[in-house]
Amino acid sequence: MSDISYRLYSDSTCDLSKEILDTMDVKLFNLAFEVDGKTYIGDEMTLPEFYNAMRNGAMTKTSQVSPQTYEEEFERCINEGFDILHLGFSSGLSGSYQAACIARDNLLEKYPDAKIVLVDSLCASTGQGLLLIKADRLRREGMGLSELGEWLEENKLHTCHVFTVDDLEYLRRGGRVSRTAAVAGSILGIKPVLHVDNEGHLIPLGKIRGRKQSLNKLIELIKERCGDWDNSEVCICHGDCIEDAEYCADKMRELFGKKTKVNICYTGAVIGAHSGPGTIALFFMGDKR
Q1: 191 DSSP β-pair partners
Q2: pLDDT tens string 95-105
Q3: Which of 30, 155, 157, 212 is the most exposed place for a label (fewest CB within 10 A)?
Q4: C-beta separation of 134 from 283 below 8 A
């Protein structure tokens, strides 16, 4: 860890690759997931194995981080002499952020002088990850705890998410679409296009017939939203469909410039349990979500 006076935390739902995380000074809380009733945490099951299990009909579930888990880690950090900044998984999709708030409140009763800043990212997957990359960089450059907390609050709703899924069945399981729509969509080759709104919820934007057309629609949505923001570094995550991710990466470089850094990561199991194999999501900075 660096000698900066506060530590940076987030959740495993940031969906950043190990290669990227190894360059960062951040600690993640792992959300658990189940596959056919067996619980896994972190990399106990590889993501190719996870998505293959889903393709073979495995039932998946996820669970949030407990207040106790947050509290134990935050207390250890305080006792080592550090303040805390935690960038949490969207409260619109999980109770984990609220659990972190409970932990903070408990600890401030015990350690009233401690500084614990919690930011509800209202982001998911590598959208949360893109914001975390920027936070880590600013922290390393010397930005203080309060200032970075304010920066995150000011910029989190400019962190845009647009995505599509390959099979409506997984969204049906989560109550996002009806059974009738899922069956009809599969027959007709309809691919939904969605985004994450200002409340951190998954919101359908439309339906496109055909996979390639849905990927191109994501690029159109970027053009509508990106404005003049710095997008020299952007992110893509995929549900075990790297060729489609590479296709979108090329399109994003065409849009933002060939020198644009495009981070391609797997959609982690916690998010992937609800979106399914074949998910493609693009993350960038923009005027609006």
Answers
A1: 208
A2: 999 999 999 99
A3: 212
A4: no
